[in-house]
Amino acid sequence: MKAVIVRDHGEPSGLSYETMDDPVPTGRHVLVKVHACGVCRRDLLVRRAPPTRELHSPLVLGHEISGEVVGLGPRARGFQIGDRVVSTQREYVCGHCSKCRTDRETLCADLRFLGNQAMGGYAELVLVNDDNLCQLPEGVDYVTASIVGCPVGTAYNAVCDTGLVRIGERVLVTGMGGVGTHAVQIAKAVGAFVIATTRDGRKAPMLKELGADAVVVAPDGQFAKAVREASGAGGVDVVIDTVGGPAFQQALRAVVLGGRIVLVGDVTGKPVEVKMTSIYRRGLEIRSAVSTSRRQLQMALRMVAAGQIRPLVAKTLPLSEAAEAHRLSESDELLGRVVLIP
């Protein structure tokens, strides 16, 4: 099969389009013919960073996978040849720990992440354990479906399961990347008043189209005052923070007493100093949403199939142009995912 292998960590030029042996399904593996694989920010970070022992060798990136079942291991369950499927971000979870048994398999200590500890979807074929796949609903195409397991499902987790957003609440979403743009749509779908923040004013019209009731453009990242004004209530009930770092400080200033802040990402990696009194004296709840469980993926797929969410795909490229896909994704010029087609 053809695959893109990380031969040199650092620049996109280190991605090499090569021929390698076809994987063979064993145990509970499902062999998937990849029809589409999204390019996530995590892919960029893994490629840029020095290699570590935990990374699969050879390293094939990609965890946003949709495709067709073409092979089954002897103990695989729930799927047949020809089924259309989409992956969670994982190749394996143990299935029996306390996290796996309570819809929190994203925290399984033994999980293997696709495109990290396991071979990923920048390939024509990929192996995924049966409990890390979902059936693809009728009417949802492969390209659209490929990104549901990561940015859409994680946004669903943040808004619905972790943020517990209710009808009529005011919700702020920071950062208009993959998770943020879908969080705007999901918060609107569940009946919230949605405020989106961005540094780039060119994104404002699209964010309105996606469902934002108000868009705060803050090139300097100082959005708290404008958000309080836009809320009409002195602040928001819930913050979905996909940026982290300095944005968290602004989120604290934008949320009302008893509000909830859901941390979903940390773009800068910079430490944040916080006075604990600014949290506990105001009755704030700080939560975190980690990835997408299989159930959350199923729920997100239902919303996509019902037309409540539009997965944002900016561009498709052939698998052989993975390096260009990374360059485009790093440019931050696109509103939506780049998706590779084997």
Automatic annotation (TrEMBL):
Chain positions covered by the region annotation Disordered: 1-20
Pfam family membership, one: ADH_N
Protein family according to the UniProt entry: Belongs to the zinc-containing alcohol dehydrogenase family.
Keywords, comma-separated and alphabetical: Metal-binding, Oxidoreductase, Zinc
Domain Enoyl reductase (ER): 10-340
Cofactor dependency: Zn(2+)
Signal peptide range: none
Biased composition annotated in UniProt, kind: Basic and acidic residues: 1-11
The UniProt record lists the keyword Oxidoreductase: yes
Protein name, per record: Enoyl reductase (ER) domain-containing protein
InterPro entries xref list: ADH-like_C (IPR013149), ADH-like_N (IPR013154), ADH_Zn_CS (IPR002328), ER (IPR020843), GroES-like_sf (IPR011032), NAD(P)-bd_dom_sf (IPR036291), Zn_alcohol_dh (IPR050129)
SMART domains hit by this protein: PKS_ER (SM00829)
One Gene Ontology term of the molecular function aspect: oxidoreductase activity, acting on the CH-OH group of donors, NAD or NADP as acceptor
Taxonomic lineage of the native organism: Bacteria, Pseudomonadati, Pseudomonadota, Alphaproteobacteria, Hyphomicrobiales
